[in-house]
Amino acid sequence: MTEETWGQVKNELQKSIGRSNFTNWIEPLVFRDLNSGVATFNVPTSFIGNWVSRNFGDQIRHHLNKAGAPVSRIEFVVPTSAAPAAQAGSKAKGDSMVAQQKPTSERSVAKAASAALRSDDSGLPGAPLDSRFTFDSFVVGKPNELAHAAARRVAEGGPVTFNPLFLYGGVGLGKTHLMHAIAHELQTSRPDLNVVYLSAEQFMYRFVQALREKKMMDFKSLFRAVDVLMVDDVQFIAGKDSTQEEFFHTFNALVDQNKQIIISADRAPGEIKDLEERIKSRLQSGLVVDLHPTDYELRLGILQQKVEQYRKQYPDLVLAPGILEFLAHRISTNVRVLEGALTRLFAFASLVGREITLDLAQDCLADILRASDRKITIEEIQRKVSEHYNIRLSEMIGPKRARTIARPRQVAMYLSKQLTSRSLPEIGRRFGGRDHTTVMHGVKRIEELKGHDHQIAEDLELLRRSLEA
Ligand SMILES: Nc1ncnc2c1ncn2[C@@H]1O[C@H](COP(=O)(O)OP(=O)(O)OP(=O)(O)O)[C@@H](O)[C@H]1O
């Protein structure tokens, strides 16, 4: 990749993210080199690197690939001579921040936070939205239909019926996408509303900054003037006592004014460790919906949609039959990985000017395919089995011995033994600390039943297929 390509990409980025974002976040990046698919940029501070990685990483990669640079990952490096600055937290989506600097001081957190506050034109506390995350580009399938329907309802901007809307699910399953989609929709249909989206991490930075600069009143009034507040990845504030406290007050103030709140996390409120009980119960008081792991059909739908998008720019793209089915089958980790695989495949094919065949896909995605080799977890088994028999997950691992609970529990134990490499004691531990002999007994019982009880045999087959999908 040349300086010129980066120049072109910068022009594209300016169009898609707006001038202010561009000046704050993209202009400070200095292209260093491109090696084995990794594009490296110098950044003045790790805060900027983390922010860019989180908020614009996918877009930068997308435009680089479009401009013909085969980039699968982006790294941001703070040159050692640069002054130490803030660490914006460790979570960088896909792309990474290579920190070559001293640890964070509180002062630098405050500095970083003030950069964050300046990040939008309006002076409001929101973070930038990704223009690609809309309802139109969100593919709906069984695993996410409820979350999608709830998000749609909130996006209508009508009277607040459930508050908060709490969306949870594993990495890369579309929580951020749905939240941005709600924000886009509301910005168009209800421009009068003050809609604010930010991550829990950003909430904390702003809070810390306000404390240090003795501007708590400003902070409070800024957040209390919001009509719709969306906080992404709320698990981040677990264990951070004063941030939790402030979050709780903000939350209550907004709910009291009947303002809509939307929260996301990687797990259900009750399962977030080190989160105060009163916050957990507040978070549970509205509608809690989860995004289930993708199934084969949803993955295929997402891939088809991405190809359609891509075809608009590259009408000559030739895909051999069965490629998308192959990818949907083999890459079941998360949607981000699936998208990354497709982007890499397109970039590679356009670089070498070849049709995308199964061989090419296997070759160019070998590492992703290896890493995605399906690993079924006991938690997934417990969840699927509870759903199948319509019992609660807590009952599955709880003490009840009634047949209606004990049988599904034994089925889940049996499947855990069959489909994972966990030992009997390990399985016992995951089932509410049961002894390995209990697990052994459960597994044997199901083996026996399977031989003559058709219903059980059918249940097992169905569950196995859905777990391996
Ligand atoms: N149903 C879907 N249709 C289309 N794209 C999707 C869908 N689900 C996820 N994606 C895409 O997958 C990528 C990851 O999604 P997103 O960032 O929303 O995940 P997340 O649940 O917020 O993950 P994390 O826990 O890492 O924050 C995005 O590019 C998003 O557009």
From TrEMBL:
Domain Chromosomal replication initiator DnaA C-terminal, first and last residues per copy: 377-446
GO biological process: DNA replication initiation; regulation of DNA replication
Chain segments carrying region Domain IV, binds dsDNA: 350-469
Domain AAA+ ATPase: residue ranges: 161-291
SUPFAM superfamilies the record matches: P-loop containing nucleoside triphosphate hydrolases (SSF52540), TrpR-like (SSF48295)
Binding site for ATP: 172, 174-176
GO cellular component: cytoplasm; plasma membrane
Quaternary state and interactors: Oligomerizes as a right-handed, spiral filament on DNA at oriC.
Free-text domain note: Domain I is involved in oligomerization and binding regulators, domain II is flexibile and of varying length in different bacteria, domain III forms the AAA+ region, while domain IV binds dsDNA.
NCBIfam families linked: DnaA
Name assigned to this protein: Chromosomal replication initiator protein DnaA
